[in-house]
Write a structure and sequence with these properties.
With about 750 residues, the protein is an alpha/beta fold. The protein has 27 helices and 29 strands. Strands 16-17-15-12-18-19-20-23-22-21 form a 10-stranded mixed β-sheet, with helices on both faces. Strands 4-3-2-1-9-10-11 form a 7-stranded mixed β-sheet, with helices on both faces. Helix 3 (about 40-50) links the parallel strand 2 (about 35) and strand 3 (about 60). Helix 21 (about 560-570) packs across helix 25 (about 695-705) and helix 24 packs across helix 26 (about 710-725). The longest helix has 21 residues, at about 370-390. The radius of gyration is 31 Å and the shape is elongated.
């Protein structure tokens, strides 16, 4: 069957349950084609195409029949569109001809091959004949609606005639076409002889005008419910069609809280042909915090990928996380091949989305084949969550690798509360819009009940992208001060949107900078081996000042610019030669990520150049380690340093800065944090020396300020920073986020 439906009041109306039922039927049934046929202009239809809850139409007829495009490409359907165009004199010609009718007010809505006006019924009556004559002289038709609106259109153009022409062009069987509408504007579709349904609560004038049409059914249910009624009334699908009936309700049993993360809370290995768990090799303070939510007996599931290796079958879908500490939590492993992981995570996420998110859009490489793998993987995650979650459960999805999970999950389980936290930076529209699939991504995120970012700037960047893609209403906002800097850094902002309305859906938003695990750092500093490492470092550095840099190998981190700034300091201020050492720990990328090889070579060459220029027999200015250090050793380095130099060109947050502050605070030492003002943490960490990594002079000046800072000032700054980091630790971050999710149902004030 072919469903040709009006939008407002029809396909977009009805109860949420009825809309979900019809959308699911149209989206999944292999035998249904969909045509949007609307008075909206194409621009006004495009936001609907971004909503993953609404099925994508095969064809779109806009502007009351004057515009016809393919639903997937949005390209004009030829030769039908050219035939309509040939008889349209042009917008400016029509507007000029209608200008003498000053009682008419032009509608300021997107439109093509059509001029639309508001009119008062009493004023319109004596002008009708003149308007009709003026339109006829242009070779155009006039379409009236409810005596309050009129359209000047190309001749012989309305919804019914354009749909009939479309049916002839595509050789669609007329007896399989069902038209649906709710206003007199839709009358021409019924008069064209198609089977039709006037949905419940239709405009009385339409109901009266179609009362004697044999093929028109007047439904009881409004909107989508009325369309389903008509499908059953006309027998367009078999009574036992499995797609026609609503899916069974979600089971009551299952996980009450579902964590959806790309990695498991443990590392996996195969020993003697069996899957075994090991403690995570790389430190991640977030994972213990997320696990803590399952300590109280709450039934939970942790959904992450597992490698589906043909050599180790059958695939183990469920494993216990920790029976002693989390007896009601199990890990749900989503089976992915090594190739899926390589494409979805190591290649596509890092080569397409990572550079764009960090405002290096010229480095982004977008491949349609990779996008299809990304969609497939995200769909598998959504299906796994749908199988695990109890009715009404809360689902917490993490980061950009899983952007498309909310869309698929909302379709599968509309009963769930979906929350998303974006761990990376989120750029503004002029950057994000380079993504070919930006509308699909934003549409998916808007299926969430709550979306969290690190800082207000990232929230507003997201709002900026949404408003450029679809109509959105800002329902609520709040001041960023005093929690965050407003005008004091590059990522500061004064107010932040906390609630958006898009269509009939409200989405709550918030800023939640991830905290560090202060308790873990305190425990490490009490260990004998860490104290021993710290003693050795201090003895090795001696009276010199240690400037520490710890970061991953990545072009977003500004490592080369930092080295050049350090070289500038030694060159222009020779009194620092021999008195300061820059120790750089640069964690290399996985071997498969070849995009970073050139960068590593450039960094190593810069280190060699600086050491070659300034080294002495008893002093090497730059000590460079291209390896990952155990977290215990990293903490010892934090404690030994006098200056922490963190200068990313763009960063979502930067936890290293907080770890340094926590370590120095526990040790009672006055370390100075020099932080890029383009790191998200800059908006939160009041007391840091902020620097612009894009300005070589300012980069050098920030380091010089830290090296020459009086101890009293350094101590005062550190106390301020420590108060922030200790209060807003990782546990508070998790509690605050989930509390905001639970409160997201509260109506906007």
């Amino acid at each position: 069957m072919i469903l040709a439906t009006d939008l407002d009041g029809t396909f977009l109306a009805g109860s949420a349950a009825q809309r979900h039922r019809l959308y699911r039927l149209v989206d999944q049934h292999p035998g249904i084609a969909l045509v949007f046929i609307t008075g909206r202009g194409l621009e006004a239809v495009m936001p609907l195409l971004s909503d993953p809850a609404i099925p994508r139409p095969d064809y779109i007829v806009c502007d009351v029949g004057a515009t016809v495009v393919h639903g997937h490409t949005l390209q004009p359907l030829q030769p039908l569109q050219s035939m309509i165009d040939a008889h349209w004199p042009g917008e400016q010609v029509v507007a000029e001809a209608m200008r003498p009718f000053t009682a008419l007010q032009r509608q300021d809505v997107p439109q093509e091959r059509r001029c639309s006006y508001f009119c008062d019924p009493a004023t319109l009556a004596p002008l009708r004949a003149q308007i009709q004559q003026t339109a006829a002289e242009l070779g155009c038709d006039v379409l009236y609606s409810a005596d309050r609106y009129l359209d000047i259109l190309p001749p012989d153009t309305d919804k019914g005639r354009t749909l009939a022409a479309l049916a002839r062009l595509l050789e669609l069987p007329r007896e399989r076409i069902l038209v649906a509408g709710d206003t007199l504007n839709d009358l021409s579709m019924y008069q064209a002889g198609f089977r039709g349904v006037c949905v419940g609560e239709s405009e009385p004038a339409l109901t009266a005008a179609t009362a004697d049409l044999a093929n028109t059914y007047h439904a009881h249910e409004p909107g989508c419910g009325g369309i389903v009624e008509a499908i059953e009334h006309f027998g367009l699908l078999a009574a036992d069609d499995p797609y026609l009936h609503a899916p069974t309700a979600a089971r009551a049993q299952g996980a009450e809280l579902v964590m959806v993360y790309h990695r498991l809370p443990f590392d996996e290995a195969i020993e003697d042909g069996k899957l075994v768990q090991r403690p995570p090799r790389s430190p991640n303070g977030i994972i213990p915090s997320l696990l803590s939510f399952f300590e109280g007996g709450q039934r939970g599931s942790w959904v992450a990928w597992g490698i589906d290796d043909p050599k180790h079958r059958p695939f183990q879908r469920h494993v216990q996380v920790d029976a002693q500490h989390y007896p009601t939590l199990r890990a749900t492993r989503v089976p992915l091949s090594r190739q899926d992981v390589d494409i979805f995570y190591k290649r596509f996420s890092k080569e397409a989305f990572w550079p764009m998110l960090h405002v290096f859009w010229e480095r982004a490489r977008f491949r349609e084949d990779d996008w299809q793998v990304f969609l497939k993987v995200n769909r598998r995650f959504a299906e796994a969550v749908a199988d695990e979650a109890a009715h009404g459960a809360t689902v917490w999805i993490h980061d950009y690798n899983l952007w498309m999970v909310p869309a698929a999950l909302r379709e599968l389980r509309p009963d769930l509360k979906i929350a998303f936290f974006h761990h990376t930076y989120f750029p503004s529209a002029d950057v994000f819009n380079v993504v070919p699939w930006r509308r699909e991504i934003i549409g998916s995120l808007l299926c969430c009940d709550y979306i969290g970012f690190h800082i207000p700037r990232q929230v507003e960047n997201f709002v900026d992208v949404v408003r450029g893609a679809m109509p959105a209403e800002r329902l609520a906002w709040e001041s960023c001060a005093p929690r965050f800097l407003t005008y004091g850094c590059a990522v500061g902002l004064d107010t932040m949107t906390t609630r958006l309305r898009v269509g009939d859906r409200d989405v709550a938003l918030g800023a939640h900078p991830v905290g560090t695990d202060v308790r873990r750092i305190r425990n490490l500093l009490a260990r004998a081996e860490v104290r021993n490492d710290l003693f050795k470092l201090r003895r090795e550095i001696g009276a010199r000042k240690l400037v520490l840099s710890v970061e991953r190998l990545d072009y977003t981190k500004g490592t080369l610019a930092k080295l050049e700034a350090f070289e500038r300091v030694l060159e222009q201020y020779p009194e620092h030669c021999g008195k300061v050492t820059l120790l750089m720990v640069c964690v290399p990328a996985a071997r498969e990520m070849t995009v970073y090889r050139t960068l590593q070579n450039q960094i190593e060459q810069a280190v060699g150049r600086i050491n070659g220029r300034f080294s002495r027999l008893d002093w090497t200015p730059v000590r460079f380690f291209a390896q990952a250090l155990p977290f215990e050793q990293v903490v010892a380095h934090y404690a030994a340093a006098q200056v922490m130099w963190i200068t990313p060109l763009r960063d979502g947050l930067n936890l290293v800065a907080k770890e340094f502050v926590a370590t120095q605070g526990i040790e009672g030492t006055p370390g100075v944090l020099v932080l890029s003002e383009f790191a998200g943490a800059a908006a939160e960490l009041k007391g840091a020396v902020l620097t612009n990594p894009h300005d070589p002079a300012d980069l050098a000046a920030g380091l010089l300020q830290a090296l020459s800072m009086p101890e009293e000032e350094a101590s005062a700054r550190l106390r301020q920073l420590q108060g922030i980091v200790e209060y807003y630790d990782v546990d508070r971050w998790g509690r605050d986020f989930l509390a905001a999710v639970e409160g997201s149902d509260t109506p906007a004030s």
